[in-house]
Task: inverse folding
């Protein structure tokens, strides 16, 4: 019932996209596009035979080589009880065990937002866009590259709230390095909760910070609600090749036991952390992802979990990762096929680039991950906007440019309207050979919503564009980012809840000395 | 037999891509990538039901409204004899007639180049990239926007010859406005024939210029060879909605009768020249394209012909066409499905953009047509590199940036290597958990060809990039364009053939006064 409502709501509101953008521009409360509901069929890059080979290879490696679960006696105990052959920290997984354990994970779930209109469906034909995650630097609106601050963090939360096609507030939209490392998660989670009413992600840098996130979610949503529903989605990277480390395992266990979602993502620079080939990388991704996904179900059967893949390719010249190249796109499409095979929501993609500026390299590279992500049927797309410089920089300008692309992809994914109005037979009859459609009834009735309207692209004549200052894309984006920040108004939060959150944060901050490493 | 050789040749040489680029950089004769052979399945955006509806609607309109064939008594006569109901210049086409006539068109054909190693296969799983077509302006290497000259034309032919992933020399790579309009086609065709040995396109601006193109091709290839083989592919746009004009019909007839290929392309700004909806536009595309394709078969059954679609969307704000938006991408994917349904090669796509500079807008918009073009299984991709400003400008810098993307798409389309080497099981076994693949045997054996290497993207550290001058993508592309032009050496042409071509051009130029309109 929930799903059907969400879908039809999605369909209805998607057509309000232009209105939402207008409203956003004119300073009223921003309307959001709902999560994407895809009508395009997914692209299968692997043949049925290739799927069988890679799965069999992964089975062999999981049994023969195994996966290391480091510094976590509880994890080893759970695996031993589940039937794995544990030698030291090496967990050897009998063929098929992970696939069997993964069956209790939901194929689709709702992540609740404090504003129910912003709830998102994760899985199935849906795609949820979430902002850039993790950069220690920003490229600010004065064009300066510098360390990120809490002020920047709050700004990116505001931008994500204002952007119509951003469905999620994300997590570490940038790393606020001016706040002690052991306390910043409290300010980050509070920013998501107070400056936005979109769903958000939790801290994973230590088990106690994950626990703080859950505690704050309980204050916001109520303890019972949190135990029954997903209100936080958090990012758990595997340590490739074939290692789960104590920090990640700690966070994973906290969230899974609290019935909150984790995104299990092998984080791979191909050629360094996996073989240089696509099939080899996919085999390793399968070992890492399925073992950790199975482990979430050992922690709490039924806990929501997302099959994730983050793959790039190393530049054999510079040793740096290269983004937007074909091989990681192939890994993405292949991993997506396995996620579908296992009935799991899938995370990948984003507007990834190694470029230092939001220029042609940045856009081409970003498009080269956005497209396969949409085609692969990604359900949760982290880094969907704002990423620059291989993930070292959150860019205000690129955030705005990317969000425009997300709105276009959302329209693309909605498919072709085959209604009578869509077929337009009367229009073609009325206009006839050698005439034009500019003033006809059908055009006038449909033009406001017929085409995606970009807010950063310039389609004027050369002369008009020159007259307006011959602006580059990023200059237009800069003005929009300033406008969104100026227009942002925090959505109403119950003052009692707000006070309780603040009290919790004060108490936690007072309980420990500042730490900066 | 020919096809099999071409494909296996393609497979072998595709792996030489990095070597080709190295060779191109180091000043030796440039090696080309062969045409693309796609391993990815095409994306079907239309359901079987949607296909039936649109085809039935097109059938209704072709019979009821008809298509105008203007100022061409021979065309009307041919249609009347074929069973159409001709009223004045309006050709009413009985249901199914065009589909029946189209059956004599080949589903795939070879376009021969004067160097047989550069022959291209048009149709089936193959994609051929061809340069930008038509702009009266260039943005030159000094960053100046100005009218194009014959010197620019020759430069773009040289760039297309040097670019490894450009399989075709194209046609009007820019409009050389310094040469009289009634004589420039001779210089253009000669530039393609002498400065390159890749296949090329012919003139369509008047029937006698098409005839000059065929005559020059006969001098180059021999009369009998030309009558039996396709050596020129030429662009015939429909005059949407629902009109074929005398100029285009004249060129079409010359080429079809000479057994040369035409690309039949409805050229549509959606909302102006077709309905504002995707399904309505597809219906009109089907009427226009299938009627003109059928007409080529009336001129000469078996003449090679390509189903083309060029669609964009009008900006209801400025009246200018917008590029890289979702709706034209949907039209492209839908039209591609119909081309497959009718067993015809398909033309669409290109690096299309309305941007004035090769910036983020240019790249994002271009990617948003390149991706659906590859997914839709486009066989002949005109405008694959160099297009700027809605087709008004050929850009040297964007040409180079786009060619890098084409090489990436070619690698993407090749699919996943599932050989034992691709599976990399021994590498994963040898490396094991917690280690890395940087120095292992498998990496060393494969790293030179494993990943697409961009020649314009910067993947160095921020510090290194700053040290090297903090260059934008277009600055790197500028240097490469200069290098390619400096390195270009015209491929050997038989001096007797060259003299015969020059004599023909002299004779034709002397036969008429200069005309500039």
Result:
């Amino acid at each position: 019932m929930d799903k059907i409502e969400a879908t039809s709501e999605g369909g209805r509101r998607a057509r309000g996209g232009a209105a939402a953008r207008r409203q956003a521009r004119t300073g009223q409360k921003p309307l959001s596009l709902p999560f994407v509901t895809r009508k395009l069929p997914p692209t299968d890059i692997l043949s049925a035979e290739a799927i069988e080979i890679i799965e069999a290879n992964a089975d062999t490696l999981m049994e023969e080589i195994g996966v290391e679960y480091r510094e976590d006696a509880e994890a080893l105990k759970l695996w031993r009880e589940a039937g794995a052959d544990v030698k030291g920290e090496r967990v050897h997984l009998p063929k098929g065990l992970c696939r069997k354990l993964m069956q209790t994970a939901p194929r689709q779930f709702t992540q609740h937002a404090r504003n129910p209109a912003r709830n998102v469906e994760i899985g199935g034909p849906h795609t949820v866009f979430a902002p850039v995650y993790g950069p220690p630097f920003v490229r600010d609106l004065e064009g300066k590259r510098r360390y990120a601050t809490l002020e920047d963090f709050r700004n990116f939360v505001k931008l994500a709230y204002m952007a119509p096609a951003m469905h999620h507030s994300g997590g570490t939209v940038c790393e606020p390095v001016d706040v002690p490392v052991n306390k910043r998660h409290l300010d980050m989670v509070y920013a998501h909760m107070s400056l936005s009413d979109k769903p958000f992600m939790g801290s994973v840098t230590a088990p106690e910070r994950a626990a703080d996130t859950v505690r704050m979610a309980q204050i916001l949503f109520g303890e019972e609600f949190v135990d029954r529903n997903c209100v936080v989605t958090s990012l758990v990277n595997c340590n490739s090749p074939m290692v789960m480390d104590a920090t990640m395992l700690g966070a994973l266990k906290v969230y899974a036991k609290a019935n909150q979602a984790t995104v299990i993502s092998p984080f791979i620079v191909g050629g360094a952390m996996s073989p240089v080939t696509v099939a080899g990388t996919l085999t390793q991704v399968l070992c890492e992802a399925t073992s950790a996904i199975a482990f979430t179900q050992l922690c709490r059967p039924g806990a929501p979990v997302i099959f994730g893949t983050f793959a790039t390719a190393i530049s054999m010249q510079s040793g740096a990762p290269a983004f937007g190249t074909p091989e990681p796109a192939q890994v993405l499409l292949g991993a997506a096929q396995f996620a579908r095979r296992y009935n799991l929501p899938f995370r990948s993609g984003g507007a990834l680039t190694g470029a230092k500026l939001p220029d042609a390299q940045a856009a081409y590279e970003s498009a080269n991950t956005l497209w396969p992500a949409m085609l692969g049927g990604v359900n949760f797309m982290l880094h969907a906007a704002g990423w620059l410089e291989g993930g070292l920089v959150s860019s205000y300008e690129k955030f705005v440019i990317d969000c425009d692309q997300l709105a276009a992809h959302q329209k693309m994914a909605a498919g072709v309207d085959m209604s009578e109005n869509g077929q337009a037979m009367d229009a073609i009859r009325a206009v006839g050979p050698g005439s034009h459609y500019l003033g006809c009834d059908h055009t006038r009735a449909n033009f406001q919503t017929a085409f995606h309207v970009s807010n950063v692209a310039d389609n004027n004549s050369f002369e008009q564009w020159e007259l307006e200052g011959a602006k580059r894309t990023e200059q237009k984006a800069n003005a929009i980012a300033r406008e969104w920040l100026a227009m942002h108004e925090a959505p109403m939060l119950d003052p009692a809840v707000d006070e309780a959150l603040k009290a919790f944060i004060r108490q936690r901050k007072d309980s420990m000395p500042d730490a900066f490493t």
Notes: The first helix of chain A runs from residue 2 to 14. The two ends of chain A are 47 Å apart (CA to CA). Chain A touches chain B through 125 residues (CB under 8 Å).
